[in-house]
Amino acid sequence: MKEKKMTKHIAxxxxxxxxxxxxxxxxRILDKLKADGLxxxxxxxxxxxxxxxxxxxxxxxxxxxxxxxxxxxLLGAVGGPQYDTLERSLRPERGLLAIRKDLNLFGNLxxxxxxxxxxxASTLKPEVVSGLDILIVRELTGDVYFGEPRGIHTLAxxxxxxxxxxxxxxxEIRRIGKIAFEAAQKRNxxxxxxxxxNVLETTELWREIMTxxxxxxxxxxxxHMYVDNAAxxxxxxxxxxxxxxxxxxxGDILSDQASMLSGSIGMLPSASLNxxxxxxxxxxxxxxxxIAGKDLANPLATILSLAMLLRYSFNNEPAAQRIxxxxxxxxxxxxxxxxxxxxxxxxxxxxxxxxxxxxxL
Length: 361
Ligand code: IPM
Ligand code: MG
Hints:
Layout: E1 8-15, H1 19-35, E2 40-44, H2 49-55, H3 61-69, E3 72-77, H4 92-102, E4 107-113, H5 126-129, E5 133-139, E6 151-154, E7 160-163, H6 170-186, E8 190-195, H7 201-213, E9 221-226, H8 227-236, E10 243-246, H9 248-261, E11 269-273, E12 279-283, H10 300-312, H11 317-332, E13 335-336, E14 346-347, H12 350-360
Parallel strand pairs: 1-2, 1-3, 3-12, 5-10, 8-9, 8-10, 13-14
Antiparallel strand pairs: 4-5, 4-11, 6-7, 11-12
The structure holds 3-isopropylmalic acid and magnesium ion (MG).
3-isopropylmalic acid (IPM) binds next to helix 4.
């Protein structure tokens, strides 16, 4: 019997700021793969400020339905200064948090890799960062980001108080631990769990569970580090890390920090996965409103996010590698968008970078 071929569906969410222009370059790559036989189709939907403008909500039912039905989601970026004065629940970032929660995308993978060609783009000395290859596994649907109670209220004496709650259930720690241990097994088998167990009970539990899980992954060498020390070690000796696993808020901060080791946040993709491998893929950078619409943005993080989509949600390693090799090739050719430009290279626009990757493909 012939194996039944199932078309895979991708939801494309361009978002705000530079989102639409960088996503457009990734879609050109997708079209090329499709023309070469990849069995996919895709549908666009708005998220963030774009969705607020069309539907008065950053994650409207229209987008929710398309995303719930898709096998994977490719996102540009959300946010912009014009939305900063909106009521909190309508701001673009709330759309991003809502889609993460709605689709249960608890496992956030943020690689920080230094391409050899970009060793001088980092603000750290080349010898400190060359060969850098770290994977940050960030828990994405719990912690102080979602914990209740939360809010701003007024005390009896009239003074206002802001509240957020850091909490993690054992099951939430175990499921992110599983992703991290398994990722470490596929890499150099080193896992560093980052917490603040000397002060915060939530992360004391985190440390205990990670230590317990290590019994099921005896081939992985597990270490623990307090988050303040981890921040220091990341700039002092970043190559000591292989896989880092941490909670939502620490992961938010450490992943931005790690991204700069690699020279430009414009190079880094990310994946946010649920238990069944469905994922949302987005560049690690934001919507960069200052350069939006000018064809200046670096589309490589989005193109590399597409590679992660093919790898993790569609199990298509050859297509993922084909994209990654094409990106390596354009860097080797000396093509650079402005964020990674250095003297002696050729400065190109966002769309010219897209042209070059397409040719290399
Ligand atoms: C990120 C971003 C988001 C976060 C914001 C935009 C809500 O900083 O993806 O790291 O804090 O998670
Ligand atoms: Mg962040």
